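Sample intake — Elongation factor P
Collected from: Flavobacterium flevense
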Amino acid sequence: MASTSDIRNGLCIKYNHDIYKIIEFLHVKPGKGPAFVRTKLKSLTTGKVLDNTFSAGHKIEDVRVETHTYQYLYAEGDQFHFMNNESFEQITLNKNILDNPDLLKEGTNVMVQVNTETDLPLSVDMPASIILEVTYAEPGVKGNTATNATKSATVETGATVNVPLFINEGDKIKIDTASGSYMERVKE
């Protein structure tokens, strides 16, 4: 058993007969009344996100997890295939477990959290950013940069990302995997 002081991003807990992963949390100590922890929980079975507030000192049941490095191999419909880098064992995960499946490039290493009691994969943590090549981008129009103007571009995995007007086809860009947004252009 853990308490609210042990809450951190990525912690897996049992709550309402389901397993949830904590996405965001905020410890709040108001001037009047007891402290509490405001959290965003993502169900690892359905993928739904819910907001919940725990009072300070509330006991929560954590799930023991192990983290292993897996390499993304390929997708087949809604099924994504991964290989363990140490044992070369392959697993298949459903699309709803992944946070941003359309940004996954074949050969990318991800961290998979596995429940130690049942040996079932719980969640997949992608790298903080990923570098992808732009396969399609409309040409930018000169003089259209009074503000932070963006256009949509398609990257090699098929995902669509809003990018600045100076990005062209063939450019490599760095994308934040948490939000799916453009970070910077990568020079080689």
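Post-analysis note: The chain has three domains: 11-55, 65-125, 129-185.
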